[in-house]
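dumping this here before i forget
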Amino acid sequence: MVVERRLGELECVRDGERRQVWASLVDTSWLLRVDLEARAVTAVADLAPAMAGSVAVEADVISGIASVQGARNEFWLSGSGWPRPVKVRLAARPQ
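structure:
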């Protein structure tokens, strides 16, 4: 995946001893996980399917992200014009 868009909202998290950042891509429904020590994208997530039934907006665009304290890979997401934030839990895609 070539990232030609700008990073938007950032959320710093720890996965064990590793520091990581979840970042939204501006004007999209995509999140990227960046391992700060490895300086590499280690996961991508398209959240449009998760938001489709919960967010009644013209575009599924993330403008805010906050990790749920004490929960791994759980986040509150918000967007401009969204009626309410959406809580999501990210899981690895089955191989």
